[in-house]
Amino acid sequence: MLRSVFTVGGWTMASRVLGFARDMLIAAWLGAGPVADAFFVALKLPNLFRRLFGEGAFNAAFVPAFAGSYAVDGARKAQALANSLAGLMTIWLSALVILGIVFMPQVLFVLAPGFVGEAVRFPLAVELTRITFPYLLFICLAALVSGVLNGMDRFGAAAAAPVLFNLMAMGALVGLTPYVATPGHALAWGVAASGVAQLAMLLIAVRQAGMAINPLSRPRLTPDVLGVLRRMVPGLVGAGVTQLNLAIDIVIASLLPAGAVSYLYYADRVAQLPLGVIGAAVGTALLPLLARQLRTGLPLSAHRSQNRAIELSLAFALPAAFAMAVAAQPIISVLFERGAFGAAATAATTAALVAYALGLPAFVLVKTLTPGFFARGDTATPVKVGLFVVALNLALNLALTPFLGHAGIALATAVAAWVNVLVLGRLLMRRRRLVLDRRLLRAVPRLLGAAAVMSALLLALEAALFPTVGAWRYSGLALLVAAGLVAYFGAAQLLGGMDLREALRMLRRRRA
């Protein structure tokens, strides 16, 4: 599991770094104005469906079924399952894309009601979303192929695919802008093209792995296929609860003054770095591992894997959350404050980032806990929890936004995520599917102590180094990052929260 986490996390880190480069370009060219708001809505809509139908509900039902079939029944039967589902996905997602393009004004009337009636944002958002919406079809098929590769313990290509998204978006922004109406149009075309490129790359990778997948296969409704579809329906809510929360955020943010959607986007992009590198990596590696261990009669191994996944998640999520909350202003200033993105936008985005940071450990833990349900074929329980959390998030949004503005939306998402963790964890423990072992219970308070030591140092350094202007901002932030890393890992080692020597031994074994 740890080797897989390192592979997925390494490629995800590369993708996130390129994503920051992309967002820095977007901030400089578009700022936080109407064109930026319209593009971010156009980007969020296909991504919402992708995370629900592709990476969320579908993966929650498909990956355990494929991994179990591959381990017990062999490659031929697992391939037949994947091809039938690929054919089904091509048919119904193609229909969804066509309907979405035709009825896009009505869709955005629901998802971005604050844009309705505006002379610029609404028609521009409709036009840009029509360009980006076909990305949904290609990236959901790419998620299926990624699930096949992950089920075969081949994580590299699937984790590397998002790198193409960032490269093509940046290339389109720089290369196409002179030839289209706005920079938002250039970005939208780059997004659509990147979906085709990612799917093509993954199809080549899975063929090289000996498991050819054909998205145009004739679907066969076998009992295994029907089983995946049955588990997928409740998983639309259970695995996608975070994305449903984000959809609510878009609706409410669109009702706020211009710039609110953009502030939340930029803050979310920073929060997504540790969430993607830690949460997605651990969840991606844990789900097929738990499914195989449970399918082959190794419940004690599954218990240990779940505990180590939680420990690893917290070991990196806690310092990331503390550091983002303490150093939010320097982070946003260095990453985005240039060109059309001014000091006022930095202050507004900083407030949102602090709120998101409060929920970061919860966002990561949700990714670690849900495989405990999905690996056992239980997609119904997260549905019930998810419905409650979505309702709670909506209520908190309505309660906090009048007082905190866009930062209230981020804070509501964070609080809802913690409630999600508490309920999911309690249910797993009540069913004896999660028993926190002594190693985990010993490590968590020590990791919290190490994160507190790091935060105290960062506060002192930030007061001395900032406000810093010009190029000195970059060196100041670099010093904060370096000092935070040394302080956290040094304190964690001294307090006994982690054993760096054990990690080094694992890395040596991996190289060997």
- Percent strand equals under 5%
Helix percent reads: over 70%
Mean pLDDT: 84
Radius of gyration: 22 Å
Tell me the number of helical segments per DSSP (H or I, 4 or more residues long): 19
Largest sheet: none
Taken in chain order, the helices and strands follow as: HHHHHHHHHHHHHHHHHHH
Q: Give the beta-strand count.
A: 0
Shape: globular
Structural class label: mainly alpha
pLDDT < 50 stretches? none
Distance between the termini: 17 Å
Give me a quick take on this structure:
It is built from 19 helices and no strands. The chain has helices at 2-30, 34-72, 75-102, 104-111, 121-132, 135-151, 156-176, 183-208, 223-238, 241-254, 260-295, 299-326, 328-336, 343-374, 380-404, 406-430, 438-465, 472-495, 500-511. The mean pLDDT is 84.
Can you give a write-up of this model?
The structure is a single chain. The chain is mainly α and 512 residues long. It has helices at 2-30, 34-72, 75-102, 104-111, 121-132, 135-151, 156-176, 183-208, 223-238, 241-254, 260-295, 299-326, 328-336, 343-374, 380-404, 406-430, 438-465, 472-495, 500-511. Helix 2 packs antiparallel against helix 9 (223-238), helix 5 (121-132) packs parallel to helix 8 and helix 9 runs parallel beside helix 15 (380-404). The longest helix is centred in the N-terminal third of the chain and has 39 residues, at 34-72. The chain is globular and about 60 Å long. The relative contact order is 0.12.
